[in-house]
Amino acid sequence: MDIQLSHVKKSFGKTLVIKDLSFAITAGEICCLLGPSGSGKTTLISLMIGALPADSGTIRFGDTEMPDMAVLKRLGFMPQNDALYDDLSAYGNLKFFGGLYPIKKQALDARITEVLDIVELTDHRKKLVKNFSGGMKKRLSLAIAILHKPDILFLDEPTAGIDPVLRRKIWKQFQSFKAQGTTIVVSTHVMDEVIECDKGALLYNGQLIEYDTVPKLLDKTASGRIEDLFFAASESEARS
Length: 240
Ligand SMILES: Nc1ncnc2c1ncn2[C@@H]1O[C@H](COP(=O)(O)OP(=O)(O)OP(=O)(O)O)[C@@H](O)[C@H]1O
What we know:
Blueprint: E1 3-12, E2 15-25, E3 30-34, H1 41-48, E4 56-61, E5 64-65, H2 69-72, E6 75-78, H3 90-98, H4 105-118, H5 134-146, E7 152-156, H6 164-179, E8 183-188, E9 199-204, E10 207-213, H7 214-219, H8 227-239
Parallel strand pairs: 3-8, 3-9, 6-7, 7-8
Antiparallel strand pairs: 1-2, 1-4, 4-5, 9-10
The structure holds adenosine-5'-triphosphate (ATP).
């Protein structure tokens, strides 16, 4: 299912934070939303998953205009700040969130075993989340996001604060989801992560300053560093 955004705008109070965005995310690809803090990445994800209404414009998943309940059920979302229950174990959290889906108890238990294995938390299934490290919490959040086998995964800074070794493991996991046909929309301000993605949407002050395949984006830079494209945007803003 492709995702098509057309003239999407969003304000908070009098501040326009998403400024007339139009672009399309291709099914089966990894698309990263890149941008400095405050550029609008989380807001854009919230608009796409139907957590926030757009002020104007349309968001379509395939032929369906959002929000649409049937489509929403096919999405997985990993928020920037872990939405976990500290006083429950990893298993308890998965059981709770799994209970929100129409999955039979036995099938849910089997799926919990599967996702714990995918994120390498099987040995910690009984541990309370309050005793988890930041990286373990991220992996548990990811397990929750994939519990219902979503077709499209929205990941909001999934590797923020994660060490490079674990980050590499997590990205390997994303690539394996992609190989199984999952579309992934991932926000990051770690510029190095862009090479893991098929396309990059560069956001600056709520505007889409670039959207292209990653090789083409890198070609547009003098140094092969994606940061250059942001420097160019900030210089042109300073001149205007
Ligand atoms: N609920 C809200 N009410 C008012 N302003 C908001 C709200 N949510 C976001 N904003 C503002 O909208 C702008 C975009 O914020 P957003 O969180 O989407 O950026 P971001 O690119 O995800 O940043 P970060 O990388 O720091 O997470 C910021 O100026 C932010 O202060």
